[in-house]
Amino acid sequence: MQMIDYDEELKKFEPCLDVTEAESAIYDRELTDILDILKDLSRDVRQSNGRRRRSE
User: pTM for the complete prediction?
Assistant: First the structure.
C-alpha cells in the first residue's frame, strides 16, 4: 500500500477555474441581504408615519 505524500500533492494543486470565477463574481457583486431590506422597510415606515402626522 502506497502512502500519499501530502506536501507533494499540495505542490501539484491548481484551483478549479470555475470556482475561482464564481468566487470573483460573488465578491464583486453587491448583493441585497435581509438587513438591507429591513432597513429600507423601517425607513419607509418612519417616512409614512411622518407624513400622516403632518396631515393630521
Answer: 0.40
d(CA 29, CA 22): 11
Cell numbers placing 19:
470556482
Amino acid at 41: L
C-alpha 27/C-alpha 41 separation (Å) is: 25
Q: Give 1-56 as a DSSP string.
A: -PPP-HHHHHHH----HHHHHHHHHHHHS----HHHHHHHHHHHHHHHHHHHHHH-
The three three-digit cell numbers of residue 13, written as one number: 494543486
Q: Please write the tens of the pLDDT for every residue from 12-40.
A: 998 777 877 887 777 777 777 888 889 99
